[in-house]
């Protein structure tokens, strides 16, 4: 069975930039999963430090209201990997999931770490490149012209372990 992970779709991230295209893509995928009766799992990054934007009791750490109503379950994490010291593996096992689709934020951190951790645990992994987003840009990494999503997608694709699709490829796949 397949399941969708929606990673860190939280106010602290989504409110920093115009992520409307990413949100639209994620919502489209969520609707496909809902139609198929497949689990939609939201991952929420939390922190115990009151100064953090992900402080577990702050509004900024809450799931973004635009899509949070779609969550079948919410798993909280404290590291980039949605698997590390969480109940995600147990939930997936209980649901007989063997194929994970990755969407959410930030592409180069939590989405990438979770995709690799999922593969390491034996899951088939599909990373939907343009259904991820990041608050970072080429200036942060001091690499002019860097397209972070494309770079991460390319690295994962070249690994020959993670399937990487863009929305068009994903939509073609569900039609066939």
From TrEMBL:
Keywords: Coiled coil, Hydrolase. Residues 9-36 form a coiled coil. The keyword Coiled coil applies. GO terms for molecular function: hydrolase activity. Pfam families: Isochorismatase (PF00857). The keyword Flavoprotein does not apply. It comes from the Bacteria. InterPro entries: Isochorismatase-like_dom, Isochorismatase-like_hydrls, Isochorismatase-like_sf. Residues 3-155 form the Isochorismatase-like domain. PANTHER family: ISOCHORISMATASE-LIKE DOMAIN-CONTAINING PROTEIN, PEROXYUREIDOACRYLATE/UREIDOACRYLATE AMIDOHYDROLASE-RELATED. Belongs to the isochorismatase family. This is Isochorismatase family protein. It comes from Salinicoccus hispanicus.
């Amino acid at each position: 069975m397949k399941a969708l992970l929606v990673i860190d779709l939280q106010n602290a991230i989504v409110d920093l930039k115009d992520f409307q295209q990413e949100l639209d893509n994620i919502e489209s995928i969520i609707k496909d999963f809902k139609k198929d009766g497949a689990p939609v799992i939201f991952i929420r990054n939390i922190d115990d430090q009151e100064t953090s934007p992900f402080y577990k009791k702050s509004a900024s750490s809450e799931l973004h209201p635009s899509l949070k109503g779609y969550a079948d379950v919410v798993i909280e994490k404290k590291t980039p990997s949605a698997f590390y010291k969480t109940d995600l593996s147990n939930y997936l096992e209980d649901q007989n999931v063997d194929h994970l689709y990755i969407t959410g934020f930030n592409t180069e951190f939590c989405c990438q770490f979770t995709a690799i951790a999922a593969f390491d645990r034996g899951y088939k992994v599909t990373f939907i490149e343009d259904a991820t987003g990041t608050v970072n840009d080429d200036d942060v990494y001091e690499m002019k012209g860097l397209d972070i999503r494309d770079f991460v997608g390319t690295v994962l694709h070249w690994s020959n372990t993670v399937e990487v699709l863009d929305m068009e490829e994903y939509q073609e796949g569900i039609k066939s």
